Amino acid sequence: MNNGLNLKPIVTKLLIASFSLGLSLSAFAKNEAVEDVEFAVFSMNKDIPQLSKSKARMLYKGRTKKLNGSIKIVLVDLPENSIHREEFYDMLLGKSVSQMNGYWASLSFSGKGKPPAELNSDDIKDILEWLNKNPNGIAYAPISTVPENANILITVLQGE
Fold first, then answer.
1. pTM of the complete model beyond 0.90
2. DSSP letters along 108-139, please?
3. CB atoms within 10 A of CB 28
4. How many angstroms separate the CA atoms of 70 and 32, rounded?
5. With contact defined as beta carbons under 8 Å apart, do 157 and 88 qualify?
C-alpha cells in the first residue's frame, strides 16, 4: 500500500524537528522578555526620598507635587514622539501617551494642574542637564542609561 516506503522514520524526524523548533521559539521569546526596557525614576538630588509605586503614579498623574510634605517636586517628560515615553506611561500607569495628553489637558483646563515640562530629546545628556538646573527635579529613563551617581527613586519593570 505504501509502495515499500517506511513512513515511521520520516514522521519521527518531523516530530523531532517540530519539537526543536518549538523549543527554539520558546527560548527566543524568553530572550525577548529579558530585553524589555526597565525604567528608573530618578533625581540627582540625594535628599529626595525613595518612591512607592503608588506615590510615583500620583506624581505622574499630577495628584501630588510634594514629597514628605515639604519637598516640592518638578517633573520632566520625554518628547511626545519618544518610544521610551510611550513604554514608561504604559508600564507605570497603563496609559498611552495620547490618553495622558487628554488627562493633562483636562487638568490644565480645570486649573488643577499642568503637565510636566517636556524635553526636546530623550538623550540622557539632555535629561541630566535639565536635572542639574532643577534641584528638585525628577526624570525617568531606561535604567541602563542612568548614571551611577543618580538617586534612583523607583524602578519600573514590564508587567509590574
1. no
2. HHHTS--PPEE-S---HHHHHHHHHH-TTEEE
3. 9
4. 42
5. no
User: Distance of alpha carbon 60 from its chain centroid, rounded?
Assistant: 13
Question: What does the DSSP assignment read for 56-114?
Answer: HHHHHTTS--EETTTEE-EEEE--TT-HHHHHHHHHHHS--HHHHHHHHHHHHHHTS--
User: Which candidate, 72, 73, 101, 92, places its Cα nearest to that of 141?
Assistant: 92
Report the alpha-carbon distance of residue 24 to residue 105 in Å, rounded: 46
Beta pairing class for 71-72 and 39-43: unpaired
Could you tell me which of 121, 128, 120, 136 has the C-alpha nearest to residue 59? 136
**All 3 cell numbers of residue 39?**
525604567
Q: Which of 124, 138, 123, 159 is nearest to 67 (CA)?
A: 138
Annotate 66-87 with b (16+ C-beta within 10 A) or e (fewer). Answer: ebeeeeebbbbbbeeebebbbb
pLDDT digits (tens, 9 = 90+) for 72-123: 999 999 999 999 999 999 999 999 999 999 999 998 898 888 899 999 999 9
